[in-house]
Amino acid sequence: MTSLALLLLVLLPFAGAFVCACLPNGSRNRPAVAAGAFTLVALATAIFQFKHLESETLTSRHEWLPTFGLDIILRMDGLAWLFSVMVLGIGLLVVLYARYYMSKRDPVARFYAYMLAFMGAMMGVVLSGNLIQLVVFWELTSLTSFLLIGYWQERNDARRGARMAFTVTTAGGLCLLAGVLVLGHIVGSYELDVVLAAGDQIRAHSLYLPALILVALGALTKSAQFPFHFWLPHAMAAPTPVSAYLHSATMVKAGVFLLIRLFPALGGTEEWTWLIVGAGVSTLVLGSFFAIFQHDMKGLLAYSTISHLGLITVLMGIGSPMSVVAAIFHVMNHAIFKASLFMAVGIIDHETGTRDMRILRGLRRAMPVTAALAIVASASMAGVPLMNGFLSKEMFFAETAHVGGTEDWSMSYAALAMGIFSVAYSLRFISVFFGRLAQDLPSEPHEPARWMRFPVECLVVLCIAVGIMPERVVGEILAVASGSVLGAALPAYDLAIWHGFNLPLLMSCLALVLGAGLYYFLLRRHDLRERTQVPVLHRLKGAQAYENTMLGLTQAANWLIRWTGTKRLQPQLMVVMAMMVAVPLLLVDPLPSLPGLDATLATFAIGEFNPLFAVLWLVGAGCAVGAAYKAKYHRLAALSMVGGTGIVTAITFVWLSAPDLALTQLMVETVTTVLILLGLRWLPPRFAPPGLKAKAPPSTWLRRSRDGLIAAAGGLGIAYASYAILMRSPPPSIGDFFVLRALPEGGGSNVVNVLLVDFRGFDTMGEITVLSAVALTVYALLRRFRPATESIAIPVQQASDVDPAVTQTPAVQAASGYLMIPAIYLRLLLPVMGVMAAYFFMRGHNLPGGGFVAGLIFATALIVQYMVAGTDWVESHLRLRPHRWIAWGLWCACFTGIGAWFLGYPFLTSHTAHLTLPILDEIHVPSAFVFDLGVFLVVVGSTMLTLVALAHQSLRSHRAPPGATRAAIPPAKEIF
Fold it and tell me: In sequence order, what are the residues at sequence separation of 6 or more whose Cβ sits closer than 8 angstroms to the Cβ of residue 576?
């Protein structure tokens, strides 16, 4: 039951994202209800797991790649539970809040789909029990956050902020992947439990420092720590619900979660302290100082978030047991008050039309409840007593004083400076509620809808409850979460709100008094409303450095392309072929011998070769050479000869007793030839230049001779390598394994088909997915494609003053013209080929055939209809909808695998059922039949989608621009 619960915690958000994505974008209530329902069920499931965590760590293991030590492991301890409840709990409040925040013009269903997908990725990060798995979900959070930040894609600042966040965090993710690989190399396993237990081994290893730096880069980029802090303020271009969610409990907390999670394995060394504390101290001071001078309320909260994340990072860098407890405590507190503040800013923006603090003032008169909630949350952010932020900040002051002792007060000074600045920017934030009500606001301010304010009220109540009764509200949660990290090293601590007069209390009081004084000084002597840049540190522009770096990389790439690339394909192929020949000659010494060459030559001497087979290959080779020769100016002839080469290949497969391959090759050759032929129709005609001489000059012959020699050398080299490999003693074959197990374990006697849909079903699943993606891409590209003006004209072969077919459409020609008899014949052929496709499909598990071949046969039958009657006639009689064929095909294939998974078997495990039916008697139905049906549907859908994309060009050609010519194309000039 626990295993299922952990699996649901990850899958439910993704399922909710899928449901929301299927809903219409114009709807607001249905996506909100769906998202809220899935999140609520996941939250309830997570809460119910807490009772098990005091005595054990919950795990769920599913085999993935056991040979490589990679299993899908879900692991929940106290820390993972805390982050899960934060992600789901605040996510649920944001779902409710977004229902009232988002405009009716926004595609709300898409918003909720992105948000729940991000939620699922975060749940995968916090619950991963395998480091490789954690990195996969880590990068998925970067991808989904890119979609959320760039949600308002029509805005330039949203696109820029999304690209910046994605670039920085994915670069950090690549560093994290490298660090995880190093850790796996050191420990010998990627399982989190094994890595955490091997802390001493890791710290003593020579690769400890590289691993630490790489992992730290991943964490620091994600949590926007200096010098990677600049992406977070630009991410404020996202809708406010996104900012409230990503920058309070989720994305930016992923970095500090990683530091806390891997602390037992990497922490406790001087290198850890210098690296993590150095980044954290720089961040907390700079972030809090920059926050004071922001004019956008979200910008102020963004820099304050950077500062508080720096505070948590410093606590983790200090590395004492008490500092880890304080870091986890502040993670909770910051999530609570920062989410409420972001949502309060969203309310102000929603009801007034602006977030500019230079304009806003006196809002407590028009929005008294919202003002009270924001002031309380700001007090928590500033560290005012009886608020939750005060408790964790006091613990922070205590740890900074403790780490320096009586000799080094630098950490305490930095902490005090951060406290002073935080009070100053908190006062700046709440200043919008005081004074006379502004009269020039874009909208008349008023209180929001009752349920829009409800999430803020819940979080503010938590701020007060934790501040007044910390032990009763979060004491047990903090103990379990801290204990899961520290284990037996968990210190004794007291969450009481009064510890007497001590140094941390003095620092808190100084921060409050000096912060208020600093704000008053800046307000009176240096009018904050008039400042356009941050004093002293305004030249410290991380975003500008990022833009300069990206510009430099772009210029370097352009330079590289300019000097090493070419727009012509021929020089590129020449370089590739030349290197393919030269590199083995330079590096392989001596060249491998050709074992069996004498015996092979002897077969020619004694007549043991078949001359018919040799002639067959000579024909194929001649077709290939002829196609290359004719490809430039005679595309149709070249395509015909390429088809001849394909037919020779199919006959070769028949000759070598491979009927499955022969059948597949023949159908692939048929379909691709027709599709390429349709594509060639819309390419601009290519003629010999008017001034081209009949005899090429010497320079041309030299170039052609050079290219011919390189091509011949490349071909001979490939032949040499192939022959050398084939003549060597083959390694032990696994063919017998499949032959012996195809029938008893796969339920079929056709080894090839059983191999594709059972033993290697996962490969086939990937192949049909790629095929679907390619078909959709071709369709999307060709939808924007418009035929060239010169290709719209009627080909010269069809131009005639006396032929009535010139003025007829394909549908008219098929109905009453010269194509009438072929059209009738081919229409009758459609059901016949449909039956043939069904026959090959049904017998594929035991005889040559299968879903792929059957799909090509049926697609050929449909293609023929298009060729004879034209697009208009076919689509008026048949509603194909190839997109749905692809979707249903992928669904059938996935259903087969997931069904086995839920029954306790590995993904795509096949099962054969024996059914007794009237007349037919006993038949066996393997589950691979459904998988093969998915292959059939994808092949038909992908082929027809490509065909439709090409066929619709004929319809667009009738909508040619007024100046387009319809004159016949003159015949091409032969080039010898």
Answer: none
The two three-digit tokens of residue 808, written as one number? 């007829």
Cα 166 from Cα 152, distance rounded (Å): 16
What amino acid occupies position 343?
M
Question: pLDDT above 70 covers what percent of the chain?
Answer: 89
Q: How many CA atoms lie within 13 A of 9 on its CB side?
A: 36
Give the pLDDT of residue 967: 38
Q: Which residue is it, tokens 């779902």? A: 95
User: Among 188-202, 408-422, 539-553, 782-796, which stretch is predicted with the lowest mean pLDDT?
Assistant: 782-796
Three-state secondary structure call for residue 721:
helix
Distance CA 316, CA 262 (A): 11
Backbone angles phi, psi at 74, to 5 degrees: -110, 130
What's residue 873's pLDDT? Answer: 75
3-state SS of 635-674?
Answer: HHHHHHHHHHHHHHHHHHHHHCCCHHHHHHHHHHHHHHHH
Q: Which two tokens stand for residue 483?
A: 């204990």
Number of Cβ within a 10 Å radius of residue 776: 18
- Please answer whether residues 631 and 638 qualify as being in contact, where contact means their C-beta atoms are separated by less than 8 angstroms: yes
Residue 580, phi then psi, degrees to nearest 5: -65, -30
- Which tokens in the block code for residue 805? 């077919």
The DSSP code sequence of 517-578 is HHHHHHHHHS-TTT--S-TTTTT--HHHHHHHHHHHHHHHHHHHHHHH--S-HHHHHHHHHH
Q: What percent of the chain has pLDDT over 90?
A: 38
666-672 contacts at long range (C-beta below 8 A, 24 or more positions apart):
667/853, 667/856, 667/857, 667/860, 668/856, 669/643, 670/856, 670/860, 671/856, 671/859, 671/860, 671/863, 671/943
Sign of the Cα torsion 347, 351, 353, 359 reads negative
Mean pLDDT of the chain: 84
Give the length of the chain.
976
Distance CA 301, CA 548 (A): 26
CA nearest 163: which of 540, 554, 532, 537? 554
Residues 6+ apart with CB under 8 A from 359: 438, 440, 441
**Is pTM, for the whole model, over 0.90?**
no
Asked if the peptide bond before residue 590 counts as cis, ω within 30 degrees of 0, the response is yes
Contacts for 768 with CB less than 8 Å, ≥ 6 apart: 889, 890, 893, 934, 935, 938, 939
Residue 955 · residue 871 · CB < 8 Å: yes
Bridge partners of residue 74, in order along the sequence = 60, 128
- The model's pLDDT over 546-560, given as tens digits with 9 standing for 90+, comes to 888 889 999 998 888
How many whole angstroms separate alpha carbon 271 and alpha carbon 203?
Answer: 10
Of residues 595 and 81, the one with the higher pLDDT is 81
| Span between the terminal Cα atoms of the chain, in Å | 77
Cα atoms in the Cβ-side hemisphere of radius 13 Å centred on 595: 6
Give the β-pairing of 58-65 and 70-76.
antiparallel
CA 902/CA 895 separation, integer angstroms: 10
Is 970 a residue whose pLDDT tops 60? no
What are residue 916's phi and psi, to 5 degrees? -110, 115
The alpha carbons of the chain give a radius of gyration, in whole angstroms, of 35
971 confidence band (pLDDT: 50, 70, 90):
very low
Digit-coded pLDDT (tens) for 934-963: 999 999 999 888 888 877 776 655 544 444
- CB 17 within 8 Å of CB 113: yes
